[in-house]
Design goal:
Elements: E1 2-4, E2 23-25, H1 38-41, H2 52-55, E3 63-65, H3 67-73, E4 76-81, H4 91-104, E5 109-113, H5 117-128, E6 132-138, H6 143-150, E7 155-159, H7 163-170, E8 177-178, H8 184-200, E9 205-209, H9 214-228, E10 237-243, H10 248-255, H11 280-290, E11 293-297, H12 299-311, H13 322-325, H14 327-330, E12 339-344, H15 363-370
Parallel strand pairs: 4-12, 5-6, 5-8, 6-7, 9-10, 9-12, 10-11
Antiparallel strand pairs: 1-2, 3-4
Helix pairs in contact: 4-5, 4-8, 5-6, 8-9, 10-11
This protein binds pyridoxal-5'-phosphate and zinc ion.
Length: about 375
């Protein structure tokens, strides 16, 4: 049973509510069992059982203390390393549940609309489960991402036009079950991020790079379920961070209005550049309800943060660095004793926005060059 996040109507549509709002499953009730795998330890909290084999090893990612960044910012900063998922981003956590749903409904074809990471994820799990997969990607997608998507053998369609519109167009395509960014079952899978963090530390702040809003909704829902089941005593503060070059949620949050389409998205953080986020209003409402924070950071700061994160051990993509880039803006809210978690959403190996600086030297000149 799904419920509209905006109007509360029950089971009023397949993908979205008749009012246009995104759907959500009711809060789960249950207990946690002592297992090392999040899909098993929290099985009461997910709509489907997932074996370790079926998960392909998704989730259960490391939470590492960022030594350099913690020292420099004067707080305890933890990085949740989602780059180690099977297709190198957190999308796998949600794709698992979406694919389970598609198979339960008897679909043989699945699809997704993606800037790249979700396409790779859905194509991977589609291939593993013997489903035909169609992925719709922007016409200007990077070669790095295309290479990864195509190895799984889906039908790939590069679509020129507004990426925000593509989401709604896809829902009109019959015969294909679309597992998009804020699919209610995808969101169930994203709760696993909250479960894992809560099991390791009492985070005071959780920072989430935000585009469509699906991951934000999933992580917050996971925490809310832990609270309702008395597994934690209070929620952390949530911060949604966007790229300044495409920040429709931040704008709506500030103007206290509805999310409006962002004209001409322009940012290095391609993975979070949805100009018309389908869960945007849901995120704004949740931020207001929980007194969360909503921030935007510019490309310069994003690329600087990407370097800092690498020097603390993780090569992430620019979109994944926005949380760390926002930390100076968060300092009014963060103290020395805070435990701040920033979600490092995807691997840097997927995109090649940086030209590398390689000096060339002959063997003869080597000793000379390195001794300089
Ligand atoms: C999908 C994605 C995001 C944003 O997640 P949403 O659920 O769309 O808000 C952030 N970073 C990366 C690397 C992603 O792939
Ligand atoms: Zn509704």
């Amino acid at each position: 049973m799904t419920r509209c996040v905006l109007c509360g109507e029950l089971d009023s549509g397949e993908y979205r509510c008749r009012c246009g709002g995104p759907l959500q499953l009711d809060h789960a009730v249950g207990s946690i069992v002592d297992e090392s795998d999040v899909w098993s330890s929290h099985r009461d909290y997910f709509p489907y059982d997932v074996s370790k084999e079926e998960s392909l090893g998704a989730g259960n990612t490391p939470l590492i203390k960022a030594r350099g960044l913690s020292n420099r910012s004067g707080t305890n900063l933890y990085l949740k390393n989602e780059t180690v998922n099977p297709t190198w981003s957190f999308k796998d956590r949600g794709t698992i549940m979406g694919v389970k749903r598609a198979m339960e409904l008897g679909h043989e074809r699945i699809g997704t609309v993606s800037t790249g990471n979700m396409a790779a994820s859905v194509a991977c799990y589609g291939a593993y489960n013997g489903l035909r997969t169609v992925v719709l990607v922007p016409g200007d997608i990077s070669q790095g991402k295309l290479g990864q998507i195509s190895i799984y053998g889906p039908e790939i369609l590069g679509v020129h036009g507004d990426y925000g519109d593509l989401y709604y167009e896809s829902l009109e395509l019959d015969d294909i079950y679309f597992i998009n960014s804020d699919d209610p079952y995808r969101i169930e899978g994203y709760k696993s991020i909250a479960f894992e963090i809560a099991q390791e530390i009492h985070a005071t702040h959780v920072i989430i790079p935000t585009s469509s809003g699906g991951s934000f909704r999933g992580i917050v829902k996971g925490y809310e379920e832990l609270l309702k089941n008395d597994i934690i005593s209070h929620l952390p503060k949530f911060a949604a961070v966007q790229a300044q070059g495409c920040s429709p949620i931040k704008l709506a949050y500030e103007e206290d209005g509805q999310v409006k389409r962002w004209k001409d998205p322009n940012t290095v953080a391609k993975a979070i550049s949805n100009p018309f986020p389908p869960s945007g209003d849901a995120v704004v409402n949740k931020l207001k309800e929980l007194e969360g924070l909503c921030l935007a950071v510019d490309d310069h700061d994003i690329l600087e943060a990407q370097i800092s994160i690498a020097r603390d051990g993780i090569y992430c993509q620019p979109a994944s660095a926005v949380g760390v880039a926002a930390i100076p803006q968060l300092m009014d809210h963060i103290g020395r004793d805070s435990k701040v978690v920033s979600l490092i959403t995807g691997s840097g190996m997927k995109v090649d926005v940086r030209s590398s600086n390689v000096d060339t030297v002959t063997l003869d000149g080597l000793r000379d060059r390195v001794s300089r």
